[in-house]
Amino acid sequence: MALSTNRTLITQTGINTHQVLNVGGLDSAGIATFLNFKTGSTNVHNIGIEAAGINVLGGDTPIGSGATIYDDGGARFSGIVTATSFHGDISQATGAAAGLGTALSQTQTDPLNKIYFTNKVLSISTTTTIDHPATANLAYTQYGDIKIEDGHDLIIKDSDDFKYDILGISTTKIPSNQFPSGLSGDLTGNVTGNVTGNVTGNLTGNVTGNATGLNSDSSINTTGTITATSFSGDGGSITGVNSPVFYGKQGTSQNVDHATYTTITNLTSTSINIGGGFNTTTGVFTVPAGKGGTYFLHGGAGIDDVQNNDYIQVTFMKNGSRIGPYARTWSPDQNDQIIDANLTTIMNLSAGDTVNFQVYHTGNATEPTEENRCFFGGYRLAV
């Protein structure tokens, strides 16, 4: 074996492991195996690499397929980074839960690091179900307002509770700050699940299911319209169902020509006109808009100075046509008598229909009515 100060040429077939060689350079076309390789503070051995720093000639340094250390000091990881603690500014970190707020500063020594803010509105832009663990009392958020976007729902699972504005700092709409203890203001979107408590204001949309105990006596009070395919029960406590109600008694007598059907008019005494539509002067009732239905009608008329063997007859008119039924009263075997006739009927009427009450007599001349015996009235029985 010959040695050179610049280059070592190994000519023998093997090197004894006990030999120590001072070699300025080593060329090998095969595999060189050593216990470790060391230069400066960098040591490569069989269990790892010890290095004060890694630099690939000033370029970025990939470590496997999931991490890269960049020459600008940054590092990118595609997996999970786990550490006992993290230090420095994390204001650009994403994906973490908001907690109770975001610090105004990420610098630990800055007083603003201990002062927090929360945005006003939490937008629900996808259908979301709140289902907290059975070990929890409720789910909550620090947001003061929740906006449910069109086409989406916020669902609170049965037996779960949800409380928003947990910090109680909202200045907008909801003083009681929680479901289900109270909700004030506008709620837009669909509510799925049970609603327990009082609802004050307007409810627009459909209610599917049972509404029980909206008042302490299990009654429902509303100033609007309740529409349903059917209503059950005796309806004994329902008010306004029979509206309109109208009635009028004749205030002054009128003349009725011989053998002529004449509408009873001047029904200005003791008049009732609930729901509108009754003209007491003309004696005509017009069904108001939205008030069509089945009506009970009743009328009566008295004629003075009716002679022997004459009679009076009464009937109803609908939209200008006499439709019956008829009622007739004959004079007794005396002259100059006051005789009257009364008639009751049930009639289906639509909005805009008109009804009135007429009298007819067979006397020889024009005769006056007996105003105390002339009247006309009715009310709606059912929708």
Explain the overall architecture.
The chain is mainly beta. It folds into 3 domains: 1-76, no CATH class; 99-215, no CATH class; 245-382, Jelly Rolls. The chain has strands at residues 2-3, 8-9, 36-39, 42-45, 48-50, 61-63, 67-69, 75-77, 102-103, 116-117, 121-124, 128-130, 139-140, 145-148, 153-156, 162-163, 190-192, 245-249, 255-256, 262-263, 269-274, 278-279, 284-286, 293-306, 311-318, 321-330, 337-349, 354-361, 367-368, 375-382. Strands 20, 22, 23, 25, 26 and 28 form a 6-stranded antiparallel β-sheet that branches. A 5-stranded antiparallel β-sheet has the order 21-18-30-24-27, with no helix packed on it. Strands 3-4-5 form a 3-stranded antiparallel β-sheet, with no helix packed on it. A hairpin with a 5-residue loop joins β7 (67-69) and β8 (75-77).
Identify the notable features of this structure and list them briefly.
mainly beta; five-stranded antiparallel β-sheet; 0% helix; 383 residues; 30 strands; six-stranded antiparallel β-sheet; 3 domains; single chain; Jelly Rolls; rod-shaped
Largest sheet: 6 strands, antiparallel
The name of the CATH topology of the largest domain is Jelly Rolls
Shape: rod-shaped
Question: How much of the sequence is in beta strands?
Answer: 25-35%
End-to-end Cα distance, whole Å, is 122 Å
Structural class: mainly beta
User: Given this structure, which CATH class of the largest domain is correct?
Assistant: Mainly Beta
